[in-house]
Amino acid sequence: MTVGVALVSFRLYEIRSLKDKRKIVKSLVEKSRSRFNVTVAEVADQDVHQKASIGIAVIGNDGRVLNSLLDRIIDFMESLSLAELVSREIELITI
């Protein structure tokens, strides 16, 4: 069994309130969750207006497939053009 996790950081521009930020983060999370059927959540920087950190988790048998899936999810999030992708970290854990 392999668990794939990703941490994706975005920079948000022209955000004046946490309410504006939540709208963008919710859109990123919900669209990714519904399209790929994976676990997605904001995991850090909840009180910072200009930054969003989103975690993604998947589980499966083949690490290469999971790595590819995480790459596709991150590329999808970036293609939504809601925020600027700053960093991405992917880790595969075999149990």
Which CATH architecture is right?
2-Layer Sandwich
Any idea of the CATH class? Answer: Alpha Beta
Described by the principal axes of the CA atoms, the overall outline is elongated
Return the average pLDDT rounded to an integer.
Answer: 92
Strand order of the largest sheet: 2-3-1-4
Run of helices and strands: EHEEHE
Stated plainly, the CATH topology is called: Alpha-Beta Plaits
Strand content: 35-45%
Low-pLDDT windows of residues? none
Structure commentary:
It is a single chain. With 95 residues, the protein is α+β, with helices and mostly antiparallel strands. It has a single domain (2-94), classed as Alpha-Beta Plaits (2-Layer Sandwich), CATH 3.30.70. Helix content is 38%, strand content 39%. It is built from two helices and four strands; from the N terminus they run E-H-E-E-H-E. The chain has helices at 18-36, 63-79; strands at 2-11, 39-44, 51-60, 84-94. Strands 2-3-1-4 form a four-stranded antiparallel beta sheet, with helices on one face. The radius of gyration is 13 Å and the shape is elongated. The protein starts with a strand and ends with a strand. The model has no long low-confidence stretch (mean pLDDT 92).
